[in-house]
Amino acid sequence: MTFKGPLTEFIFGSVPASLVSDIALPTDLSALREPIGAALVDSYFQLLYALVQDAPPKADAFAFRHAIGDVFRSLVRLASQGDGLQPSLFERAISALRLNLSNPALNAEYLAPDLGVSSRQLQLEFQRQGSTIQRELRRLRAAAAMQTKRENPDVDMLTLAQVFGFGSQSTLYRALAEEAQLVELNQRAVTPEKETDDV
Fold this sequence. Notes:
The protein is mostly helical and about 200 residues long. Helices cover about 55% and strands about 0% of the residues. It contains 8 helices and no strands. The chain starts with about 35 loop residues before the first helix and ends in a 9-residue tail after the last helix.
């Protein structure tokens, strides 16, 4: 394959669909804004190129794959947001939480400046959505840990706890148990119970 012109570098990435399944992709390509600026794409390219060139030892491969996944997620989100798809504060906050799952000190005070709001405004936005920052963070961490464990069965729980910002292995187990209970409750709410005749 031959490309003409000064910008001939490209990166092909194959990632599991689950990595970007929560990102709303436009169905109408005309809704997309102008192409992403070359300087921004170059930043992503340089980062990915550096990651690939300096591949870590096998022991660090899990964390390495996780970092590359975050880079691809942010690139897909950037490329998919047209002018009519401006995310709400809540959506931007959830996205910021996803990008910082490994930070055990993640909280409203940490996120708010990057989102251009006060920590109180951020907390109120989560309340309006019927949740809290900590609840959503715990849910996102648990879901990411479950997904990673399904894709990498050999990864031990302590490593998962560290990678996804849980304070300890027991905190990870509690979050997974809570997430499983919520899934079960949601399934019960959707599936009506069968009526039985009393004998």
